[in-house]
Amino acid sequence: MVPYPSRLKRIASIPPYWLTRCVYRIQLSGAEHLPASGGVVLVGNHVSFVDVVVLQAALPRAIRYLGATWLFERWWLRSFMRWFEVVPVSSLRPREAIRRATGCLRDGEVVCLFPEGGISKDGSLKPFRPGFALMARQADAPVVPFYIDGLWGSIFSFHGGRFFWKLPRSFRPVVRIALGPPLRPEEMDTESAHRRVLELKSDGSDRSGGSVRSNRSVRSD
Fold first, then answer.
1. N or C: which end of the chain has fewer CB within 10 A?
2. Which tens digits make up the pLDDT trace of 19-64?
3. Contact, 37 vs 217, CB < 8 A?
């Protein structure tokens, strides 16, 4: 399972991990690009409300997410956000979130951001905001780009102009996650990271009709 430092959180992660694996067939390529230790910034596309659980189910390291403050105001999400120590992001105090996330990176954690600033309404990749680049430079942490393919069109996306109120397209759809080589903070900016994510999308669609070879790391509990 996901190697959370707390035994209690490792046990708590088992049900959502297996539920995600039962609902989706997850294929991961480029697992070797995720450093085994140390602070890492993950940046990629955001197409559905389940991106976070699918990404965590695919990767062998615990991920610290950033989430908008309105998520903490929903009673049915509040406990989940606090349990997994999601860093709240306020549009009024964005530097506070950057400061906290930078501290997590310096402590050797994996921090994931979706730099588009929200879930895509049409499935396309929007321009990136610069916050992730700032925290990567402050913590001297590599940036690993990723691309998620297969969740646009799900009931948890805005496909068709509505969220949730639509039928699933298929049973156990394939979700492909591609990781790219790490970018050093001093050689990376929003445009180059955006370009790398788009390249991962193109690489995935060019492989035998869109299939991505599975390249998963061995998990340890």
1. C
2. 899 999 999 999 999 999 999 999 999 999 999 999 999 999 999 9
3. no
Q: Residue 204: inside a domain, yes or no?
A: yes
Q: How far is CA 132 from CA 64, 139, 140, 175, in A?
A: 13, 11, 12, 25
Per-residue model confidence (pLDDT) at position 133: 94
Which 3 state secondary structure label does DSSP give 149?
Answer: strand
Could you tell me the pTM of the whole model? 0.86
β-pairing, 143-149 vs 174-179, is antiparallel
Task: Spell out where 40-184 has E strands.
Answer: 40-44, 63-68, 87-89, 110-113, 143-149, 174-179
**For the chain, what is the domain count?**
1
Amino acid in position 55: L
Q: Within a domain: residue 1?
A: no
Is residue 217 assigned to a domain?
Answer: no
- Report yes or no on 194 lying in a domain: yes
Question: What integer pLDDT is reported at residue 210 of this predicted model?
Answer: 40
Q: The domain containing residue 149 runs over which residues?
A: 7-210
Residues paired with 177 in a beta bridge: 28, 148
What distance in Å separates the CA atoms of residue 125 and residue 121, rounded to the nearest whole number? 10
Q: β-strands 25-29, 174-179: how paired? A: parallel
How do 63-68 and 25-29 pair as beta strands?
A: unpaired
CATH code, 82: 3.40.1130.10
CA distance 26 to 161: 25
Residue type at position 76: W
